[in-house]
Amino acid sequence: MPNWITNKIRTKPEIIKAMVNAEGHVDFALLSPFPGEFPWNFVSSAAEQLAEIVAGVPVSDHPAIAALERSNRSRASLADLSRDEDFEQFVQMLRNHRKCGFLHSMDFARATWGTKWNACESKVDEPAGLASFDTAWSCPMGALAALSKRFPESDIHVTYADEDIGSNCGTYTLRAGRVVQSDIAPYWSEMTDQEKQHWTRFAREVKGWTADDAEE
Predict the structure, then answer these.
(1) Is 33 in a helix, a strand, or coil?
(2) What is the gyration radius of the CA atoms in the chain, in angstroms?
(3) Of 9-23, 57-71, 80-94, 173-187, which gets the smallest average pLDDT?
(4) How far apart are CA 34 and CA 85, in angstroms?
(5) Are 157 and 151 a contacting pair, CB within 8 Å?
(6) C-alpha to C-alpha distance for 120 and 113, rounded to whole angstroms
(7) Closest by alpha carbon to 52, among 111, 16, 104?
(8) DSSP 59
(9) What distance in Å separates the CA atoms of residue 158 and residue 26, rounded to the nearest whole number?
(10) Domain locations in the chain as residue ranges
(11) What is this structure's pTM?
(12) DSSP 158-171
């Protein structure tokens, strides 16, 4: 399971409206839609590995992850696509890569939105210019930057906090798709004791957690 990030947005009502779908949920697909097709709600690892080989997708910049990816790819075989669904995913991934450079919607989301899935647990107060939602692992700066570019004269204020309380949290302001002001927590290992206390209090407030909640 991922760490869930709580994100809170403060801006003009019309900007909040632009990020909310017909069901009343924050929806990144309204801001940067995936240009390919991928009708499955899971990704076949066998199909993905073979598609990465055929499409020439580079391995990770991280040495340990790159070594694992090379090892997995060295054992990949068409025989792994024993299910029709795996084979169809493989073919569709290649179609997507030819069209837009991404194998599937999750591949696109990580690179474009800044998080692997769409927003969840969203709460919207459009007249007040407020919205909150959760994302997996990271604040979706890419998706919010796309929103900001649509309203270049207005500021979008973002506050976020990881459930790893005190780490991966902070505030920033977007204008015309660029960060114009920010106050982001350093890496936990680089914080002073005073900074750890500050960012721990900050994150608990954003998450709406007490100290006991964080301990759990």
Answers:
(1) coil
(2) 20
(3) 57-71
(4) 21
(5) no
(6) 14
(7) 104
(8) P
(9) 14
(10) 4-32+118-215, 45-112
(11) 0.88
(12) EEEEESSTTSSEEE
